[in-house]
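Go through this chain.

——
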Amino acid sequence: AHGLRPLRRAGEAMRRDATRDALLRDVACAFACAKCVGARVVLLGSSTGATLATWLAAQPWAQPEMAALLMVSPAYAIRQKRELYETLKWVTVLLPALGKLIIVAAAGRVHHANPPLNAQKTKAMMALFNRVWTCAYPNAAVLHLIHLYVTIEDTVPFASVAAPALAFACPEDG
């Protein structure tokens, strides 16, 4: 949903369509398409894309065709309000309606993303960031991410990833 315009459409798409199951299905479909192009696949993911690539790399059915895993700033938890996340992650998975109420009460209805520091350096970079990135979205969309992160945390044995893996992370990512 990053980059969709108008912002209202992007935020609604993130809340309505970017469920854990839809994201996992999408990464499996992308992997199937990549296998049609070559015999082995190199997975590259950034942020939540790296989370999805990690899940895929741990799947026994995908491992034989996987050549490598490259992750840029992989996201495995909510960085902001970390204590709230750790306390309430299971509530949001088991009781989503209550989780949504708690998230909105704690963080407000809308999350406004701050551009990365390197995008704040020039007006041209800020304009590009604002053109291609969804800068505001409903906090209720975070429920899907929490569900995905809990799934990864609870079901992916990282030691089962057989492909060579390389991760880049920024200390500002938390």
About this structure: Helices lie at 7-16, 20-37, 48-57, 82-94, 96-107, 123-132, 142-155.
